[in-house]
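subagent[fold] <- orchestrator: predict structure for attached chain, return tokens only, no commentary.
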Amino acid sequence: MKRIFIITGEYSGDIHASRVVSALREKYSDIEIEGIGGENLKAAGVKLFSDQKKMGAVGISPAIIFNHILLGRRVVDYIKNEFKPDMVLLIDYGAFNLNVSKFLHKAGIKVFYYIPPQVWASRKWRINVIKKNIDKVLCIFPFEKELYESYGIKVHYCGHPLVSQLPEKADRKDFFERHGFDPERKLVAIFPGSRKFELKYLAGVFIKSAKDLQKKHPELQFCISHAPNLPDDIYEKYIKDTDFKVIKGENQALLSVSDALILASGTVALEAALYNTPMIIAYRGPILFYFIYLLVRCIKMVSLPNIISGKIIVPEIIEHNVCVNNISYNIEKLLYDKDVRNAQLDGLSGVKSLLSDKVSSSEAANAIAEELGL
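subagent[fold] -> orchestrator:
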């Protein structure tokens, strides 16, 4: 019986990991799998060494650092001395996983990395760590394959998970009816982020921008997307002075039926691009983090649609430029300037064509099975 240990760090990684496990077990039932993950891995029948509660924290506080170091030592000891897998599969969560990979490599354990750190965006020196400690990279962007091969790293392009996993567009008429929106009026959706610090830095200015747009254009209607991983009371602090509708747990449906989007940067921008929904990206955070980002970045673009296409399709409003005037102006252009809107729609339609139609989890599972001789 072959043994695999999987290490994830955040909710999204847990989902991707569970799909790889399901794809593996569809064809190869004689596999023992343990790992660090969440409810999705657990539901897929994986025995959890630890859950992700301590890993999902954001920041560099002493407590977070200590917890990660302690967990890293424990899991490496367990993998080396007790579980002794045929392979360790790392998924996303670069800072933790790359550090762990050093110790696994020294112990002679085969290590694959699915959804590797975005070394092309920042901290490119990490690719040397990957070259030294990772046996094979299972990448999700087409341009990553060429990058890793140029460094002599074994790589398999799996395709992006979203291409096969993203639900179909919601029925606009049904969605508007269920949530009490007027089908004759344009809808602008606000996505202020899924982390507490993102709400702190973005929710206020996003809502003020929407109010400014509403004054200028009373025909517009707005709603706020509530990230399902954050408690209601956190959102309430920022939305208590507005009568905008708040929709929780329907992110993708909302993305697909809106006329324009105000987004924090992240995977949500790629989801919007695949739905061909016009958007702007606005993002800011602690000034220290921003200066660090400026030092380590490799490319100047921040949103995935722009990075994938290699050009500015989506307006990016970053750090000190995040203000009501800039957000309102760019949303107005998308809603009322046909040339601007059509130019972005054309650009977004090209993003999907640049991504493969491969089923990413199945591709990853096949690469793992081939390596293990299954």
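orchestrator: received. Logging for downstream: DSSP finds 17 helices and 13 strands in the chain. The two ends are 10 Å apart (CA to CA).
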